[in-house]
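Follow-up to my post from last week.
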Amino acid sequence: MSKETRSQKSYTWQRFLEGWSLFYENLVGRIGLILLLVFGLMAVCSYIPPLIDPMYHPMTGVDPDVFRSTPPSAAHWLGTDNIGRDLLSQLLTGARIAFLVGISAAFMSIVFGTLIGMIAGYAGRLTDSLLMRFADMIMVMPSLLVVLLLSSLFGQLNIWIIVLLIALFRWPGISRVIRAQTLSLKERPFIDTARVAGASNLRIIFRHILPNVLPMALLYMTFRVTSAIIVEAALAFLGFGDPNTVSWGMMLQWVWKTGHMFQAPYWLLPPGICISLITLAFYMIGRAMEEVLDPRLRKEEQKV
Amino acid sequence: MRHQLYRAFFAAAFLLLWFGPGISAWAQDSTLRIGISEEPRTLNIWLASDANSRKVLSLIYQPLYNRDPETLRISPWLAESLPEYDPETVSYTVKLRPAKWADGSDVTADDVVFTVNLIQKFKVPRYYSKWSFVREVKAVDKRTVRFFLKEPKAIFATRTLINYIVSRKEWEPLAKKAETQEKPLTALLNTKVDHPLGCGPFVLEEWREGTSLYLKKNPHFFGQGQSINQRKLGPHVDKILFKIYGTADVAILGLKKGKIDFLWWAIQPGYLEGLKDDEKVKVFLSEKSALYFMGYNVRKEPFSDPVLRRATATLIDNNFFVKRVLQGYASRMDSIVPAENSFWHAGNLPDYGQGLSRAERIRKASALLREKGYSWDTPPVDDSGEIQTPSSIRLPNGRPMQKFVILTPPADYDPNRATCGLMIQEWLNGIGVPAIARPMSFGALLQTVKGNHEFDAFILGYGRLSLDPDYLRSFFHSSNDKSRGWNMSGYRNPEFDRLAEASVSAMDPDKRQDLIHKMQQIVMRDVPYIPLYKPQVIEAVSRQFTGWEQMVGGIGNIWSLCRVKPVD
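User reply:
Got it. Predicted complex:
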């Protein structure tokens, strides 16, 4: 490893540590992170109950002695649903699904948004106009409604199709921000230097622009996770989720459709609270990251 | 003078206070407010196929015969007496009751003749199959009509005569106009009917689309004050208001808060606890003539093999659905004909996995399949008889079974059937059968199953199964295995066809019963359909009204709405 690369790595590490200390000083960020860790733990723990007893399988396991929705008990800490399935197992599995949907949909939309934003900003002229008008068109589409329509046209959608659809509708916002950053970056001297040195457009985009817009893209990812989780929950609640998946939205749909909405608060509240808290967690982390990335948002004494 | 004025004022105030609330209560109570789930789609009787349109129209148009709430036998309604059958001419003679249409004109034999001719001429779907075997209809006199059949048909009296009669005055011009169009049937079905002219207990007063529909009492109703089947008829309410609620929760809240008096809607068992505790609400649990089932596409592999169908029937635990999914408000079905229809329901039917545990079911099903040549790399039952996670099953020809889809209605349409689909998927996976349950919008599901036959398996239900078991023939006769035909599974069995044809013409009930029993035994042996369950109807009403007539199918019937009255 050359001396330069090593010093560059230590510089990156230094910057990360500075960023982390700023993030850690932020109370909102700390709370968000703790909440997220709790949900992460829930997602990991979701594999445990079915190993204890098959009756704790979130989808197919039923307590042989329970035939209706029952309140919390020693055997079922959150109670059971109407066919005798354990609600805690379902809630833990729901955390896994929320992460899966949220992070993968957000990641996909970040990839689409960043690529399109960088290309539009860097290429400019007609490409920029075309891509941005396309982004405008997607942006004004009511995503939930379109996904609902697609779902009713093609039957119930698989969870990965739902993830892809969410991603396809949620990239324009990011692409606009990334485009703006790219427009400013491409006028900088280091880009000119690269160009003069003979770097290709692709190299300039991926080697010089991408690392500079990536922090912003990651920041937007935290906000996109929130919206992806909410869209999935709304779809599932309205009966258009993946029926083979136990998500929090699905739990809410079951409690509603089986007529237990006002009868079983132990069934209704946990998934609702979890959806609120996980989206809050991502939002809080996003806000804290925003402060780390944008010095203008920091308090005077924190400005580095 | 002043004293007199004061006295008059106080007397008026007293009268108002004394009778006022009574008058307003009476005015309010004489309107029966019914909650329904969706807007009726049409008031055109020939087009109406959705439940809510038919609920409204059932109070406007009337049939010649109805079913008695207790005996369920046909009983005269618009007809005066039971039909007289003449075996020599293969004809039925029906005498009409003196009755008037809502505009005051007489209901005549001509109207009946016109109705039948219209159905036959336009081949109106839903009705034509019931009248197609009628050769001729003649008005003998103003109130007597005679139906000549092509051949003796047992279902004429039990299924055909319970269809609605329309007014010639209302429909003749509309039919003539439709006939001039390029597609007369489509034109007839698309005819917009704003004020249907019926002879039932109510007539349409106003339809505020999207919110409510008002019916008012028909002053010319033939049953007013009459006793039919020892039941004195009203109606005793001046108006009926249909209020449209999008969701069950809001409708139930409306019932509890006194905003509606009757929820004409099958309530999910989960709501029952909350309703039973409410003093203002009365809950009715009624039996239903229904069939909820899983059907296979037996036209193609792998389900063309009856052994595979029997093995899957062994794995499906109907009691699970009854006890858990429907919370006990249902009964298990062991045949296509519900057990409550005792005269027609057959005994000695195969019970498949009834009473067995999950492990025993898996053992029994895997033994059946192994015997027929199905195989696994890792079988569901190991050498010591223990259950294990199997590999995917191989067909007798050695090829692995392809993934297949069980289509179900979506959870927002029927959560029970969607859940059943998921459970069946898991049970079949437990023996290495690669099933996937996929909820699909109801319209698309029907189109797939009935239209193009591009499916593997499906879960559907008949919520209003006729009491006459002629549906057995419709569901499984090979002539109905066609696009949009009722034989959705594509089941073909010459022996069954022969019995089915004989059953239609068998005029002797005992002989017909024997044939129907044999048909059920064949179907349950070959299991193109696996009957799952038959739900009970849960309905709730306000205690402000009394006189509900409970029968198979619930309290939402013409008898109830002709007899229900406000509590004094």
